[in-house]
Design a protein that fits this description.
Length: about 170
């Protein structure tokens, strides 16, 4: 307990590039995330998706509501989730893949518990195959992104691979 509210302005939180994709036409699309509050008990975040940014099917180690603030997301079937949409993912469930609409997307999310993504631990063989197929349909490939600058100690185990980079989107 802190003895009162924790107040932080979004402008005071650095943005981390958490995923990047390149399309066949050469353009790239990223997701930029601001971890507003991090604790071993929760993660509160805001993120901005460039037009065409992608997220694979995944889950989180805790209940996870998302509220779309601006723009829209679309799922593989083309269902639109415009601004004002609330998505609730309970612990152990999987959602996605998602692609940001033509204006991109901004959203607020919260993950109970330590906030980590289940990534491939939640993506079965069929989902992984469908994800690769979805990328191929869109003419997109996942690219590495810089290692985040604000890694909390309880996430240190998540960052393997070459020093300074990680690949959040397809592992």
């Amino acid at each position: 307990m802190h003895g009162g509210p924790i107040i932080r302005h979004l402008d005071d939180v650095p943005a981390e590039e958490v995923s990047r994709f390149r399309y066949a036409d050469g353009r790239t699309a990223s997701i930029w995330e601001k971890w507003i509050e991090m604790s071993p008990r929760y993660l509160a975040f805001w993120n901005k998706w460039d037009p065409g940014a992608l997220s694979p099917p995944h889950g989180h180690h805790g209940d996870h509501p998302v509220f779309i603030l601006a723009g829209e997301l679309r799922d593989r079937e083309g269902v639109r989730y415009p601004a004002g949409t609330h998505i609730m993912l309970e612990y152990g469930d999987v959602f996605g893949p998602f692609v940001a609409g033509p204006q991109g997307c901004a959203l607020y999310g919260f993950v109970a518990a330590e906030g980590g993504s289940g990534g491939s631990a939640y993506m079965g063989l069929e989902e992984a195959k469908n994800w690769r197929s979805f990328l191929a349909e869109l003419g997109a490939e996942s690219l590495p992104v810089p290692r985040p600058t604000r890694i909390p100690p309880w996430w240190a185990h998540r960052f393997g691979g070459p020093a300074g980079t990680t690949r959040w989107t397809d592992e």
